[in-house]
Design brief:
alpha/beta, Ubiquitin-like (UB roll), DNA polymerase, domain 1, four-stranded mixed beta sheet, three-stranded mixed beta sheet, 19% strand
Length: 330
């Protein structure tokens, strides 16, 4: 037996050494794992005594699962997640609450509700990167709308479009292609113009039409009249002019104008809020151009509050006002 042990002692020593190395390696790995668990603060799957796991979501810099000490508060978890984002809303959260194991904390974002009274909705069509319906702040220009819609396509032609024009609610902005403009120009350099139609119409907006078109043609192009529309203030066979604004009144508005006209006939004064193009044209020093400017102003900004406000219309200065002030009313 002794002879056997002496003969194979080297083999036994080799086996013992290998087993020892395996044991040392296992112990070392366990120590390393314990060290990682002790030093990490997030993304772990188990807890040790004195710690809890909490899942924080929403408007924090680093959402995730965090290991914090027992007795920690929601604020401590927020700090462990590197704090709040700028849009975070803690108004409904008590940050002093003590967290518990497997707790989920959701930090909401501030909800900003747009006041639609301060916005207008426009429909952009034609040669634009992203055609569609867009909301813009009141006072925005056509140029702002084009930027919001991604800009013009390579084939777009805006030579006939006034990008400085203020947009209005339900406005349709159509961007023609160069080919369309070329075809129109070939037919006649001055054969097309822009006309705006507002009020009780299916698709109010800005339309590019032949100068020989009538008001009826523009109404049909815009989808026709709404069910509440009245054309008592319009001459449907009238040929449109460049830059013209056609305002289709509701039945209630038409009745109000009729009543005002009755009162106007009694006083002999022209009501600048309800007068037709022909009636305004009859005023001394106004003419057809300024008469249309008055109608366009009414369509965009509403009725005049006083007769002096007529001087807000471009082209009507103090000298013109002095000539007509005794002949007008509101």
């Amino acid at each position: 037996m002794l002879t056997f042990i002496k003969r194979f002692s080297g083999f036994f020593l080799l086996i013992g050494g290998i087993v020892g190395l395996i044991v040392v390696n296992i112990v070392s790995n366990n120590n390393e794992k314990n060290e990682v668990v002790e030093n990490t603060t997030s993304l772990i799957s188990s807890t040790n005594d004195g710690y809890v796991l909490v899942d924080i979501k929403g408007a924090v810099v680093r959402p995730g699962v965090y290991r914090v000490s027992v007795g920690s508060r929601i604020q401590d978890v927020i700090n462990a997640a590197d704090g709040l984002l700028e849009k975070a809303d803690l108004s409904a959260i008590n940050a002093s609450v003590i967290v518990v194991d497997e707790m989920v904390i959701i930090i909401p974002e501030v909800q900003q509700e747009d006041n639609l009274d301060h916005f207008v909705c426009v429909d952009i069509k034609g040669q634009i990167a992203k055609p569609g319906i867009y909301w813009l702040p009141v006072g925005s220009r056509i140029g702002d709308a084009l930027v919001l819609a991604g800009g013009l396509t390579i084939n777009a032609d805006v030579m006939t479009i006034n990008q400085a024009q203020i947009v209005s609610d339900e406005m349709v902005i159509y961007i023609p292609s160069r080919m369309e403009t070329s075809q129109m120009t070939t037919t006649s350099v001055l054969s097309y113009c822009y006309v705006q139609i507002t009020g009780e119409i299916i698709r109010p907006g800005l339309y590019y039409v032949k100068i020989s078109s009538t008001i009826r043609d523009v109404i049909n192009l815009a989808g026709g009249l709404s069910i509440d529309a009245s054309t008592s203030n319009l001459e449907l066979a009238e040929v449109i002019t460049a830059g013209m604004t056609i305002n289709v009144l509701s039945k209630a508005e038409a009745q109000t104008i009729q009543n005002d006209n009755i009162n106007q006939n009694a006083t002999g004064l022209i009501n600048i809020n309800t007068a037709t193009l022909q009636e305004l044209d009859s005023l001394y020093g106004i003419g057809s151009v300024l008469a249309q400017a008055i109608i366009d102003f009414r369509a965009e900004y509403g009725y005049f509050a006083s007769i002096e406000d007529i001087m807000l219309v471009s082209g009507i200065k103090q000298s013109v006002y002095e000539k007509i002030k005794d002949d007008i009313t509101v």
